[in-house]
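Task 17 of the worksheet. Students: predict the tertiary structure of the chain below and write it out as structure tokens. Keep your answer in the requested format; marks are given for formatting as well as content.
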Amino acid sequence: MALAVDTTVDAAAADFLALSKEFAKFEEQNKAYVSQLDAVYTSQSKNLKDLSHHKYRLAQISESLKKLKDLSPDEKVILENLKIELAQRKAQLNDIAGTLPAKNNIYLRIVLGNVNVSLLSKAERFKYKDEYERFKLVVTVISTIWSFCNLFLFEHRVMDAAFHFLLVWYYCTLTIREGILRMNGSKIQPWWVAHHYISTFQAGVLVTWPDTVIYHAFRNQFFYFSLYLGLVQMLQYRYQHGQLYKLKALGERSSMELTVEGFHSWMWRGLGFLLPFLFGGYFLQLYNAYTLWNLSKDPRCHEWQVGICAIVFFVLFLGNTVTTLIVVKRKFQQGLRTEAEKVTKYKST
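Model answer:
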């Protein structure tokens, strides 16, 4: 047995010696990686300084052009060409800025500090965006099932509070992830960003609402609304995801474009059927606001949460409806202009 142990120890020592030789190569490889990483950070700092310099100089040139007066016809031509070149250069600088680390917005600085959240490669950005989409879908499915269970399987304030905590966590996480995505090139309409902040606040208020008669008077209505909203959002995700994939393949949308709870201009072609479902959700928000406002006047109501939630639901209804109607109006106007151009072109031929 002793011989077997010695042989095993010798074999282990031989394996470790072979591994040590491999480790020496790995250590050199790691040093090269660290050196390259330092070079990347140094290059980033230089590029950021140069970017600021070019933006400053372009701003100076643009300001000097505004002061020019009494120009000759030749000078006016030169000026117009220069303006075009300046606009092109600004677009080029914006493209370059998209490849460099950006300063965090106020919200991210408060939550995360000054940590760099810029993703260097397009692959990393797309992967993070894809994880964001999956996160939204998974939590939406969970919240929809939970709403159904709260309605039909059990009625307990603890389960209700846990659901509201889920919403607080979800919207808080969503705002952070969206902030990071916006820093990396995703474009989200300001209202939908504000919508998630407001929803975070509302979920926090609902968590603190005590178990009273007024709470139970509104409880079922809220969970029916949450169930409907979850089903609509899952429907949106299914069709938006497919439509975005097609538009990205055709080069008509950015690879960092996100699915949204509302309606964007790119959804008009092929996703117009979603509008009735969206407006149904918006009017349910208005109905929630109306119900809560009436409940706030009930003599049995002593909770401040009722009036606050009524106001929040109304603000969400107003913001969602106005934002969606603006998109619809813009698309109609674009359609009318396109038709007018076709008629003009036909008459000219």
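Marker's comment: The chain is about 80% helix and 0% strand. The CA atoms of residues 74 and 80 lie 10 Å apart.
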